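ok so for the tutorial part 2 we go from a plain amino acid sequence to predicted structure tokens. step 1 is just haveing the sequence, like this:
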Amino acid sequence: MHQSLRLSDAARSKIPLQSRRSAIAAANPSACLEERAIFMQNITRIPWTIDILVPFLPVLYAILDPIRIPSISNALEGPGDAVQDSHVGLEIFCVSNSLRGILTLVRAKRVPFGASSDIWKNVWPWLQFTEMYHEHLTADLIADRYVQQVLFIATLGTNPEAERTMAKDIVDICIFLGRAWAQLLQADDRDNKAAHTALISLPGCVQSWTEHPDWTRSAADGLIVGAGGSAANLASLALLHLNRFLPNKYSPLDQEHVSLALGGLVSFIQSTNHEARAPFGLGFADVLLEMGLVTSLTNLSRAVFDGSLPADVSILTYYEYLLAFLRPCPRHQRVVEALRAGFLPTVLQAGIALPGCRALLFDNLSSVTTLHSSLSQIRVSLSQIKDINKKARLIKKSSPPFYKSWQGFMAVLEDRFQVLDAYNAERLTVPICCHNHECGGTFHKQDIKVCSGCTIAYYCSKACQQTDWLAGHRQFCTHLSWRSRVDCHPEHSPMTARDNSFLHTLLYWEFRSRQKEIALGYLRFMQNQPDKTPYMLFDFRHGACQIQIDDIEELDSALTPVAVEAVVERGDRILFNVTRGSEYHDIIPRFFPPFVAGREFLAGLRTIAAGMPSGAGEEQLEQYCPAVLMLMEGALQSDFRDDMEQRRLVR
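step 2 — the prediction. this is what the tokens look like for a chain of 651 residues:
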């Protein structure tokens, strides 16, 4: 036992004279219940302040000897109302007030250095006792028992000496903290400053234990049990906490304390998503996302930039954390969710405040403009930004590099909106090729269906699908299947039929409007690598579509050898088109005309290349473009070609 917890002669002399005799009697290990009760009645008659309580620390510590817990528990679990018994009632009275006094001293950090470990050994069993028999405690302790006990655990946890002792009870501590978190949030006591302080400190306290060397899966399960029994219960507590303290006119806290309340919570959420040491398993972050984490973080970011929170560096990192969740495409649903919560207006502010985020901002947004759902939401979000042109002019003055990026993004949107309008109005008729290479027919989209596994291949009939499946699509489909990809989280569904159809239309439009550029790309490729097989890459990662012609053998590792073999060797057709962008890093094959062409197409390219003079420059290559364009045009059926020419957009 630490010296400060012993009732030495020096300690006795500090106790007020009127209470000294009863205090000495109560602290005696052989003291009877009546002596403890007399002391407690005397001390409760005077107003409690920190200075008054400090001299009584050894007495309060002695009264809280855990040796008496079994006898009190047995009495409470016996027949009848044990509290009405004078003996049990006095015990509860002494324990309740001793706990209240010693918790107050610990919270005020008036416990001598080195005594914290001993205090924990005596107090923690009683905290567990009060949790089990709280209905028998005094009204004062019932009212704020979680508040005092959370602050007691949080305060002692910052003491390295006490923390080592507390670690032995880490599972029980986590169960208690989870239960306390749920109760404090449900209480919604907006006028209780102590309750706010406990809630502010609780997530940081939980996070500190998740990073402790003694943290185990049992401790994680304990926190989940305390929160309600499931990971969803714990996730809902975290999000309820975040939404409770988001700045608004009804917020019970000032800016400084809101920052503290949210900072600890966001740090806790970050720790749960750290793959190297995920304290609740990797799936817990998915539960948080499914329950609306992106929306909550977007609202937090809006509060930062609206001036509701102090715009210091630590707060601005919340925005970078939000971007980290939006970054792993193909989770475009996250971007759509953020846009609905008001993400786009923050881009104008974040681009100035966070220069390091600029590229990431536009990469996130540009990569999802290939999808109908996200592009439509971007249009809605743009219409909700007040004085957007005025804000753009202010950006031009304050940050020309960011203004240039914004203008480039707006130019991309202008082009995409044209395609979106034409798609919505059904002014574009896009041919779709049956993926069964033995068929190779071209159809309207209403006459052909997409494979539900990969959402890439199209078939005109069940027979064609079965034929192609046996021919090798089963290996190809498994690789491309959204559900089988390791980077796909369960809260995100496969690309919708509308998104897939719109991307199909966008690709076709890019091809039709840039045929000369593509023809020159084919000529350059055949000039340098006449014996190789080219493929066409449509790269949407950085806004405007970049078209690249390269050797099919050099395809990214995202396209497996099985898929490459299926592309090159099956039947008499060759893949000439892949996309990159909406799936972030993956290269995804797309099969529609004229991108899937026969070997005659490749033979024609080689014939044209053979007739070109060695070392031909750009002007000479352009002379051969008409021949390549005619070859490309031959891949389209005449009815689709004529229809497309009549419906082409004016760019």
